[in-house]
Records
---
Amino acid sequence: MTQVSVLGAGNWGTAFSLVLADAGNDVTLWARREELCRTINERRQNPDYLPGVELPATIAATHDAEQALTGADVVVFAVPSQTFRGNLERWAPYISATSVMVSLMKGVELGTLRRMSEVIGEVTGAGPGRVAVVSGPNLSHEIAQREPAASVVACADEDVAKQVQDLVHGPTFRPYTSVDVVGCELGGAYKNVVALSVGMAVGLGFGDNTTASLITRGLAETARLAAAMDANPLTLMGLAGLGDLVATCSSPLSRNRTFGEKLGLGMTTAEILASTREVAEGAKSCSSLLALARKVGVDAPIAEHVEAVVDGRMTPPEMMESFVRRDTKAETD
């Protein structure tokens, strides 16, 4: 039997552990806090992130990273993207040289502008054929409730993508494969920024015309960046692009949309961060995605405006007014 370890016991890490368990795997779940591990093992639930969801006995939690990683055939990472490198540097000595590593994270590292698969390669020395990503419309609370969902497993080695696909294909979770790691990661990261803008529009009281316009132009912005980085444009039309974008922008379960709504209602970034333990990746990654777009010469007005609001240099009403006043052009330019 394949030994699977999931590092990160937040919403998505815990929900993905359920996906793996439902597909017939024994899972070791690493959590940062020892008391949370004790609760998971004794009460069979994660009350901090997925209260009321029963976890099967095939999920065992541990605070010991060495114990979690030793002998693992597949290692799944589900921690905030901006703290990932530091964590991985501590974990790397315990990861087998043959382990397949899977990223669930949706962000671009500040400073280096590295995607998460690139961080894995740099820190562990693993080639692209050992690094996969999972991305799609996968709101963790719905996944944990076993509502039907689909996703994409991407890896440069198609055989490895199929291996991970088989590992996670369960009664309510349908994975597809792809070799376009770049497109999947950019789609997953950029949709968080777009969701922040949509949330701000909702917080300001605007309706479906406004949000649909932002979603559509956000997809165009994402596709421009992906094309400039040699990703497959069709990836952005699929589950890791449009699918993830629609789910994140439309659902009140989305942390990024909720963060944007609170900005639209007048809260500051500092106030929102102080009010929750959950991480809205878009609030952190908007700066790195904007820098990445500028590096490759791509116009990124949504990322630019969202960063300005998150940093407190612009208000949400000013952002919406600025969008409308931009110079007009053909839609396909």
---
Amino acid sequence: MRTLAILGAVGALVAGVALPALASTKPSHAEAATLQQMAFDDAQSLVVASQATSAPMQRSGYSATTPEEIAKKKAEEAAKARAAAAARVAAATRATGSTSRVSDEDLRLAASGSGAVRYPLPQGSYHVSRTVGSGHNGADMVAPAGTPIFAAAGGVVRVSSESYFGYGVAVVIDSVVGGKRVSTTYAHMTNGTRAVQAGQAVEAGQFIGKVGNTGHSFGAHLHFEVKVNGGLVEPIGWLRVNAG
């Protein structure tokens, strides 16, 4: 009996120690944690798009968008282009010495407007006496001798001569306008007033010479001739459509 009592006491002691341990290793179904729940405690927080805030955009980080800003920007760019063109012409003039009758004031002249095509004479300074037809290949723009002449379009000077056949003192400029090859001719200029040389790049509206009465001419005027993709076009109509 004494032995049985001792064995019973030992068994009770073992059960009392083991049962809590077993209970801790077998959680109840209600307290079982899923993988998602176990991972949640260690997961990093996520900021969704609706919670994000964008950094403020500085005004200097974007281009002009209003009509006023665009017009101002175009005017500033045109002024810079005219200044750069005048500087290039002045440099070319000093290098060649062939345009002694062109003053520094002349070289600062530029046609009004900011488009890719400009009128070759100042508005209101001329009238058209005749245009293309009956063997005449251009428009005769009658203006006082010495009236400044401007490049109708930017491009490269192909001809700059004091005696260009019947054209007299003349300049021919090759350009690209609207994806088309355009050649403009400026004839009957005054001797010694050419402000550009063959091979020189010019800007639209750049001063290139002065109205005269050289070559086959009867009275001071500018013979203005335009060819598009090699074909002759009526110059005044072309200006009205393209100049700005």
---
Amino acid sequence: MTSPDTAIISHAPALGSRRRRWLKRDSLAFQIAGRLGSGLFVLWAAVTLNFAAVHLAPGDIVSLLIGEQIRTPEIEAAIRTEWGLDQPLFSQYLHYLSRMLHGDFGRSYILQTDVSSLIVSQITPTLKLTAAALVVAIVFAVASAVLTAGRRIPGALAGALELTLISTPPFWLGIVLLFVFSFTLKLFPVSGDRSFAALILPALSLGLALGAVIGQVLRQGLERALEEPFALTVRSWGTSGLVLKLRHGLRHAALPAVTLTGWLVGSLLSGAVITESVFGRPGLGRITVEAVLSHDLPVVLAVAIFSAFIYVTLSTLVDILYLLLDPRLRHGGGEARR
């Protein structure tokens, strides 16, 4: 009969082997840990840059944080306490990091409200607009790529349209859409967020440029996939070209487009700031513009950190998804070399 000590000794090599596999550079766990670590580093850098921007900006820090609010001894004392300005600089930095980790972005002395509460109250319309714009981008990219891949003239026309959309700033496209569909044809509301119809034009102005970029990459991937041997086999079954692209080609062409989408989603958040102002929508865009105009620095810093958080989170998730979809990335090309 095997003793407990003997069983532990017999299992020790297996446990050590699992640990060595986890620590190998080509393991999935190691790669995911690396992506998460990179994301945390970028967030730390964003928070640190915001802290440095406040302290390196010309003028008195208290005056910068007060903005256009009337300066009183009580407000000055509250700011010095909140930011720990009576402490050494390194202590101020640690205090600032601690506040960010706890979701404490300070107080807007112009709006007389907590910045965290202000961000939470305005985030829903912005996320709604960003999600709608992402849907527009994906639908436009897939439709453009599938309908024009492998076709010379339609592909050239689609490329010209995509180049035009990429070159057009979202706010300018929004103004054109407003003039045509709201002021002239009166099909959509001019401003507000009271109905689904009010979301269509902002989503189009924000998502079409992103869809044009993704569509170009997706079309190139589809055209390469259609030249692979599997495409010839599928055609021999009597499958139509459209079904071939949708059911087989997209799976091979989607990986680069997925990665690009993750990197470009951050541009949707930055573009939403201006787009919301053009269409008179509530959200982070409106409060950001108002904060910049009134020099409400705590709100500007909070929006910048929040945008960095969303961007890093989405990019990290896309990186992890890419590792799951394409095992070759986890082996550093070792499989191909063998």
